[in-house]
Structures are given as structure tokens and as C-alpha cells.
Amino acid sequence: MHIGASDSKANSKHGSAATVAGRTGWDFRRSGGGGGDANPDRGNGLLLKPAGRNMSLLVLESTLEHGSDFSVPYPTYFHPRSDADVLRWQDRVRGQHRTWLMAFVGAPRPDVPPRIQVRERVIAQCKASSACAMPGCARSSGSAQCHSTADIMRLFQKATFYLQPPGGDDYYSHTRRSVFDSMVAGCIPVFFHAASAYKQYPWHLPKDDHLKYSVFIPDADVRRRNVSIEAVLRAIPPATVERMREEVIMLIPTLLYADSRSKLETIKDAVDVAIDGILDTVARIKNGEQVNCGGPVDTDPPNLFAATASRIAPNGSVRAVDQHR
Asked: Which candidate, 31, 2, 4, places its Cα nearest to that of 16?
């Protein structure tokens, strides 16, 4: 997709067009040599070049630093062909009987520096909890379960909350594809870093009250073992959980990419929302506004449901809590 912008002010700030890339913003800022690049063999230096610096790029995850790359959702497993497909899917996930309090799909990342190893702590808490579903995904296990679309989506549809620690295959990454796959399945996301969603995707996710559709637990609390994720989630009143899930379900259309062989009639999918967003951005630049890629959140949102004391025993297991499910 290539969206033109002929105005000189727009051109001077963000180039003459918006280009769509199927990678993260960091994958187009690779130094390729020294420069401290953690993975110089992946991606390229397109946005480091003079012409690239004068370009707007729609990416799966923004760098949040440079003001010219704008985030759009990762493609999910579901590509509807009609409005009716979307509405049926919303009804389906709304009516699911969710037998797991929380879930996580992913493998440990032992090569990640200890100071940012929240993922390992999340996995440890999930494994220690009888209320958390997590298939075997270790890279050495050869498990096919983690690579089966059907198995993953079935799991998502059985979980109330989905744990979203930052970082996939990249030190820089704060977001994972499963953020969107799980939300499309009706899971309430649990974020541990504001950059995973709140500072990104301003066109596709709510700009203001992030806790209407998600839970936030500061990653520092998890790393320091100051909080039990299970206790935090169980403390949320059932009526609040239902409202949060409905917020997620109402967001589903804007997170989907419709089948390219068809066209939705009255529902706007992720592409429609992105086009509206970039055109609005160009118009704002024409008016002399300063526009950047980051969302409206400058600081971490309040952790409304955090436990006041740790429920994690010294051996790393989660102590028993009241069963409110």
C-alpha cells in the first residue's frame, strides 16, 4: 500500500508517501555493522538512509523513538470475507466457556539480559499455577502444539486472560503477535510494559482508558517477585471481567485484516483504520502540528488490581489464594 501526500510540509517531515512494511520498525534501522546492533543479519538500514528518514512507514511495531514509523496490528489467524463473518465470530468468542483463568504460549529466552527477564518470571508463575495453561514450547522440545494454529486458537478461546510479557525474538520488541491473536479470540490481555500496547497502535486500540480492556502489572514488580499474577487477576470482580471482555470483543473488527479477495461493507478492518489514521496524520502535518508515532501514554498507567503483598513463596511457587473464578 502506498499513500501519497503532495503537500510540501508533509514531505519535509514524513516524506511524500506512507509505505507499509510487514516487519517491526527496528528491522529497518539495522546498522549492519558495529553500532551495537544486537542482530545485524536481520532487516536492513532503510530508515537510516537520507531518503528513508524522510518517509512514513506503517510497521507491525514502532520504535517509539523516531516519529516516522506508525504501528499497525500484527496479522491474525482470522481473515473474514464479510460483515457477517465478523459478527458471527464475535458471537462465538462471546459465548465461549473459559476454563482457564490465564494462559501463555511461548518459549523462554535465556539469552535475554537479566535486567529485562520478565518473560522468564511470567513463565515461572504460569507453570506454578494450576489456573494457567501453557503448552510446551521449548525450542529443543520439538513440540508441534505451539505451531498448530488450531491448537493455539482453541487455547485462547478457553482462557479469560492472556499474559503478554514483552519480547519475542528481538531485544527491542515490546509486542508479540499473540497480543492480537488472543484478543481476537476474546482474551483480556495482561500487559507488563506500557510500550506493548499503550504507547503504540493509537488508531486501533483505545487512546484513553487502557484498563477498560486490559490489565497492567509493572514488569519491575514481576522481576522482583513482588506480585502474584494469579492473585492480581483473581482480585478483579467478575462483573468487571465481563465488561473488559466485551470491550475486547468490540475491538475485534479493527484488529482483523479482511480476506483480500473480498470487501467488508460496513465494518472497518485494520487496513481501513490505518488508512484513516495516516490520512489524518498527513492532514495534521499540513496544519503544522508535530506528529509522532507514540501513543498518548507517557508514564505507566495505574496498576489498579495489584496485590499489596507478594503471594509468591521463597521457592517460587504461588501460594494458595481464594478461588473467585
From this structure: 4
CA distance 210 to 194: 10
The model carries a pTM of 0.79
**What number of other Cβ atoms are within 10 A of residue 39's Cβ?**
13
Check residue 162 and report its DSSP letter. Answer: E
Run of H or E residues at 2: strand 2-4
CA dist 203 and 71 (Å) reads: 9
* Tens digit of each residue's pLDDT (9 = 90 or more) over 168-185: 555 567 778 889 999 999
CA–CA gap between residue 157 and residue 185 (Å, rounded): 5
Residue with the bigger pLDDT between 39 and 153: it is: 153
90 CB neighbour count, 10 Å cutoff: 17
292: cell is: 509522532
Q: What distance in Å separates the CA atoms of residue 28 and residue 87, rounded to the nearest whole number?
A: 37
CA 60 to chain centre: 10
| pLDDT tens for each residue of 211-232 | 899 999 988 889 888 899 999 9
Rounded Cα distance between 244 and 110, Å, is 33
Interval 133-145 mean pLDDT: 64
User: Mean pLDDT, the chain, as a whole number?
Assistant: 77
Query: In terms of Cα–Cα distance, which of 261, 258, 262, 287 is closest to 275?
Result: 258
Q: Name residue, grid cell 460483515.
A: 83
